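We modelled the chain as a single entity of 141 amino acids. Its sequence is:
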Amino acid sequence: MSGSINRSGALALMLEVCPGAGRAWQEHEREWGGEAAPYLGMAVFSRYLVDMMTEGETTTFPAVFAAVEQLINEGDEEVQDFAFVGFLESLQNQASWTEQGADAFLPWLNPSTREAWHELQTLWDGKDGLADVIRAEREED
């Protein structure tokens, strides 16, 4: 049933599984208009998870990563993109600056999420920044 979750459904699902991110989400909505910036909105949830990991509070992680798996498998194309880039890529980048590192999230990844996680790692492997990623993508085309 691919493509059945749209932008507002995806964001509602993330708020449901990350209730502690509510205040940060409200600030995001005030600043960006909520759904107007879904990639940045998904980064709100990844920052929340990085903070929870740092505090050792991982009880919500199974539900969060089940929801992300659902977004990847059942979301429309836009939802899949912002789950991939807005959430997972942000999570990897933000977590890479912590003592635990991004790999600390591996135990909670489900099959499609794990595949996307590894695709992102491959995409960034050996690159120093976004310009390198874009250049490499253009060379492939």
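As a brief sanity check on the tokenised model: DSSP finds seven helices and no strands in the chain. Residues 130-134 have pLDDT under 50 and may be disordered.
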